[in-house]
Amino acid sequence: MIYRKRAVLLTTCLLAGCGYSTDRNAVTRTKNSKNERIRTVALDVFESREFRRGLELQLTEALAKRLEAETPFKLAKKDRADSIITGEIREVRQSTLGRDFRTVRPRETAGTVVVSYQWKDLRTGEVLLDRPNYVQPVDYVRPLGEDFYHASQRAMDRLSERIIEEMQTTDW
């Protein structure tokens, strides 16, 4: 019985000090170099140099969802926002990783998406984050029914996740 009470007490102490916080400001820097608080972000639709249509919309939508869900920032129109994110899909490449021995068709394919983006404070003109060549690889297996559309959706989701991580961890 004494061991059980000690175990409960130890567990309670460990859980109480786990460091978990629901405050999204705790992990995201929300001030510029002049110590002005950034509350809102405008998100321009990404541009694209690629022939494939819709990739820029996939990325913009994925980024908007993550901004609202995982950061303390709110989306706003450009004329009312404190900052803005702009970007461009520069290149999308595909290459075959492996072929089916009998049919010589591609079995596994790798895709690479290269984007550039910039986060800028509209009040001061300060560039908070600038990434001119940001690369995201993704692979897909055709015999499993995956195609480039599914792979591009995964790539855009991962890109949006990494952009938000950059916003949260970069010392700007």
SSE layout:
Blueprint: H1 2-16, E1 40-43, E2 47-48, H2 55-70, E3 74-75, E4 83-99, E5 106-121, E6 127-141, H3 148-169
Parallel strand pairs: 1-3, 1-4, 2-4
Antiparallel strand pairs: 4-5, 5-6
What does this structure look like?
- Residues 7-27 have low confidence and may be disordered.
- By secondary structure, the protein is of the alpha/beta class.
- Helix 2 (55-70) packs across helix 3.
- 31% of the residues lie in helices and 33% in strands.
- Strand 4 (83-99) and strand 5 form a beta hairpin.
- Strands 1, 2, 3, 4, 5 and 6 form a 6-stranded mixed beta sheet that branches.
- It starts with a helix and ends with a helix.
Summarize this structure briefly:
The chain has 172 residues and is an alpha/beta fold.
The proportion of strand residues reads 25-35%
Helix and strand string, N-terminal first?
HEEHEEEEH
List segments where confidence is low: pLDDT < 50 over at least 5 consecutive residues. 7-27
End-to-end separation in angstroms reads 54 Å
**Classification by helices and strands:** alpha/beta
Number of helices: 3
The major pleated sheet works out as:
6 strands, mixed
What is the radius of gyration? 22 Å
The total strand number stands at 6
Looking at this protein, list some descriptive labels.
172 residues, six-stranded mixed beta sheet, 6 strands, 33% strand
